[in-house]
Amino acid sequence: MRAQVSNFDPDFADPTEWARMYRAAGIQVVPAMTPKENRQQWKRPALPKWRALEHELAPDLTFERWYGDNGEHARRNNMGMITGGCSGNAVMVDLDMHKIPAAGQWWRGLMALHNMGGEIETPTQITGGGGLQILFRAPAGWTPPTCKTSIGVDIRGQGGFAMLPPSMHESGQPYRWVAGLEPWEVEIAVMPQWLCDEIDDLVKKHGGGSTSSAGPVERTQTPEAAKNDFGKVVDGREDYMTRMIWGRVVDEYRECPIKPGQGEQDVMMRELFVKYERAVKSRIVERTTPNHILLEREGRGITLFRQKWKHAFDQWDDKVAKHAEAGPPQREKPRQLASPKVEAEAERSSEADAGDAGAEFRADFNLFEVLDVTAIKTLPDPAWLVEGVMIENALGFVFGAPGCGKSFIALGQALSLASGQPDWWGRKITRNGPVVYISSEGVGDMKFRLRAWELATGVSVDEAPFFLIRQSINFMLESDVDKLLRTVQSIVDKTGEFPAAVYVDTVSRVLPGADENLQKDMTLFIAACDAVRETFSATVTGVHHTSRAGNMRGSTVFDGAGDFLLHIEREKGETVGYLTAHKIKAAQDGWQQPFELVEQPIGDIKATTSLFARPCDEPVKDKAAWPDKETCRRILAAIGSAWNSGKPWSSMPQSRKQGRYAAAIIKQQFDIVEATAELMIQTWLQNQILSYEMRDKNTKLQGLKVIGSLD
C-alpha cells in the first residue's frame, strides 16, 4: 500500500507528519532512541514494552499519545518500524554492503538471475551508515525469519525492528529514502516467491539464531525421495506442475490449433489442477488443513498453477505450436490406472515429452513479461459484463446509506445476469451466467423480493442459475474462504459453467470482529474477494454502507481495489433516488441514473408487497437545488404565519418530535430536500431575514421569526 497522505513534503515535514505518513502505509511506526540515549544499543524503540506491539497496529489513541499535536514524541526525529504482522506482514532485507561486499554480491546476483538485473520497485532506504534496506510484504504462507547472516545480509521479519527516515545515525548522516522508491511514491511490494526461497536458502547456509518472538520459523525440509510412501510427489513439485501444464496445452493444440476461449481455458485449468493436487502432497503436516491450502502456503498451489497456465497459453502461436508440430512421442499408454500417480501421468499425455520445450518454458517463467508497442496494441479489450458499468473478472462495490435501496438494485442486477436478460437498466449484458448471492440479512423476505422482481419484469427465474448462500461467512478466516471456494466449485460442477458474478450483501456481515478502518483487516477481505474472483473468473460485487460523511465506509483499500463503485442515494420518504457511477475503471464515470423504488404486490392471499427498483423513464427533478424566489417567498410567508399563530417553526433538530422542525416541514410542504432546507434556514438567519426569538415567555417557547425580506 502506498501512503495516502496529501501535501506530504519530506523537506519540510516534522516528526508528526513523517509518522502519519508511515501509519497511512500500514506501518507500525514507533519512536526510537538516539545514539546519545544509548550509545551501544540505540537502534531500539524508545518504549519500555514495545514487544506487545508486534502483532497488531497500535490503536489510534496510542498513536496520538505519541505523535499527536502535543504528543510525547512529537519532536523526536528518530523513529522506526516494527516488522511482521503489526505492519501488514512487512519484512526488511538489510544489506550491509558498505561493510561486507558479499552482501551486495548476493543481492546483485539474485537480481541478475531472477529480475533481469533490475531492481524491484518497492520502498528502499539508504541507512545513515551507508547500507541498503529494502521493504517488502511477506506473501501468504511464508514466515520470514528474523536473523543476521555471516555475509552481511540481515532479515527483519516477525518482531524485527528497523530505523526509518528522518532518523539520524551515529555517523551524523540521516536515513533517507531512495529517490522514486519512497513509501509515498510506490507501494510496498509483495516479496516474490523466488526471493523467499533464496532467503530460506541463505539463512540455512549462513544464518544465525532467530530473534522472532513468535518462536521458530516453520520451514519444510527437502525430502530424500521425490515421492512419499503413497506415491505422492513431495519434491520437484514445481517442475512436475510445469510439465503437466505444458503437456496439457500442447495436447490441446494438437487436437485443435484454434486457441480456446477464456471460459474453456478456465474449465481446463480447474480440471487439471484437481489432478495435480491429487498427485502431489504438501510437506507441511497439519491434519485438519486441506492439502490444496497447504500447497498454496508453500507457493506450490493454485496461484502458481494459474500463472504458469496463463504463461503457457500466451505462447500458443509460438512455442506451443512448434512443440506440437514435432509430434507426440512413440510410447505406449498404460492400460490400467493403478494409482493417483499413474492416473495423473495418463491424463497428461504429453508430460514426458515436454523435454526441452518445458525447460524453456520454465526458464521464461523466471522473467517478467515484456511487451513491445505492437504487442500492447494487440492486447484484448476489457470484456464487459454489463456494458459501461462492470467488466468481467472484476471487483466492485454498490454502496449507500441504510434503506436507500442498494440491495434491491444489486438483486435486480444479479437476477438479470442469471436469467439471461439482454440488458440491465438499458445497458447491454454481454455475458449471462450463474450468479452466487451471499446474504445473511433480509433472507426472510428474499422469496418476496424474487417474486416482486418476476412480476414487475414478467420474467420467471424458477429455472435460472441463481444460488443463495444464507449462512454466515467470515471472510477473515482462511477456512471459511476455502469452504466458500469449494461451495462455488460445487455450483460449477452442477451447472457446467463458471459463475458470471458473486454478490456479497452486505460487506459488514462477512467481517465479524474486523475493523473496517484498518488497512490490514480490509486487505484480508480484498484478498478473499480476489480468491473468488481469480479462481472462477467471476465479477465480485460487495454491497456496502456509507459513513456519516456520505462516502463509502471503512478503509481507503475499498476505493483503491474497486474496479467500479456505484453510489446509491435516496432521501428518506422519497420513492426516487440516484445511482451515481462514482468510479468505472474501464469507461467514463461520473454519470447518474435516476431510479425509483415501487411497491409491488406479489399476489398472495396475505396481500404481501415487496419493493422493486427500476430506472426512471424521465429525469428526476433536482430537489437539491435552491428553489426559485417565488417559492422562497411562500416559505417565508409560512414561517411568518406559524409565528403569528403562536406555534413557531424551529431551526433546532430536537424540535422534530414536536412537529416544529422547519427543514422537515419545508420538505413536506414544498417538496425540497431537507439538507437544502436546512441550508436555506441557516443562510436567512445569517443574513437577518430570519431571527430566532422567544415567542412565549411563560412557556419559554422559542422559534423562527421573519424580520426581513428577499427584496
Concise overview:
The chain is an alpha+beta fold.
CATH class of the largest domain: Alpha Beta
* Strand-pairing-aware structural class: alpha+beta
What count of helical segments does DSSP give?
20
Radius of gyration: 31 Å
Largest sheet: 9 strands, mixed
Strand content is 15-25%
Give the secondary structure arrangement, pairings included.
Layout: H1 15-24, E1 28-31, H2 60-67, E2 79-82, E3 90-95, H3 101-114, E4 124-126, E5 132-137, E6 147-148, E7 153-156, E8 161-164, E9 176-177, E10 189-190, H4 193-206, H5 237-255, H6 262-279, H7 291-297, H8 302-314, H9 316-325, H10 340-347, H11 355-365, H12 373-377, E11 384-386, E12 390-391, E13 395-400, H13 406-418, E14 423-424, E15 427-428, E16 435-438, H14 446-457, E17 466-469, H15 478-495, E18 501-505, H16 519-536, E19 539-545, H17 557-561, E20 564-569, E21 576-584, E22 592-601, E23 609-615, H18 629-644, H19 662-670, H20 674-686, E24 690-696, E25 701-706
Parallel strand pairs: 5-10, 13-19, 13-20, 16-17, 16-18, 18-19
Antiparallel strand pairs: 1-2, 2-8, 3-5, 3-7, 4-5, 4-9, 6-7, 11-12, 14-15, 20-21, 21-22, 22-23, 24-25
Helix pairs in contact: 5-8, 5-9, 5-11, 6-10, 15-16, 19-20
